[in-house]
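The records we work with from here on pair a chain with its fold. These numbers are not coordinates but entries in a learned vocabulary of local backbone shapes. To see the layout at work, look at the sequence and tokens printed below.

. . .
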Amino acid sequence: MAEYAVVDVETTGFAARGSDRVVEVAVVQLDPGGRITGEWCTLVNPGRDLGPQHVHRIRAADARRAPSFAAVAGALADRLAGRVVVAHNLAFDARFLSAEFHRAGVPVEVTGLCTMRLADRFLPHRTARSLAACCAAAGVVLDSAHSALHDARATARLFGHYLRSGELTGTPFPALGLPAGAVEVRRGVAGAVRRTEAVPLARGDVVVFTGQMSAPREVWVDRACGAGLVSQGYVTRSTRVVVAADPDTLSGKARRARAYRVPIVSEDDFAGMLARLDAAPGAPVPSVTPVPSVTQDHRTGWRRGC
């Protein structure tokens, strides 16, 4: 009888074959009856910024300490080998895992069973197709959505609910024979991080923004311009400060900033710096300040000017 490996990934975005990468992967192993027999989870260093951190809540300080996908490919493959892969919205997880395996030099296509598609058969009266809606319809508890391990556990329990109606079959994942010794790196490995950082600003200073922030980037650009700063889409040695969704970000802008010893600050830090700049003698009065002319940066498309 078939055994199963329930998987879930958190990613930097949706472009599996493009620039987006896996940032967390979890596997929950099930026996033929749907009982949990093992689980494994690790963060993955994507070598780029983490994308929508407000969704997956992974800190760059933790991801920086994680192995690359190539380093964990063997450990992951070992936990999938001989088992039917299961995921909620399998097309998404399989697309990312296949792309990551290919980039690691392992040309394998991930296939399996999708609990979202199977819901048409087992949960015909559900209210929606999401994992939360399917779990609610099946009476399964979903804790901490958008955590790979919590989502994989919930999907495993949901799949166990399906298995009460009988065995579900699929093609087992092949044994790849890769080295399987990778250390798991979990969320929180970096402990408490960051400190409030204040960088004195003067009108005319160049600022650069990076990452998906809690407020739209256009809002921050407008605030910076309104305070007399210059917004630029790329980092140079003359950049005064880089404002990041997460100051430990792995983005290319952040790497360049560290190389140039340009400070990287959080949104909250930058808001405080703007408040101090606005309160400084000679600060412009917004109601009478002309609207700055704004153009697009030719390299990035981000608005610049002021």
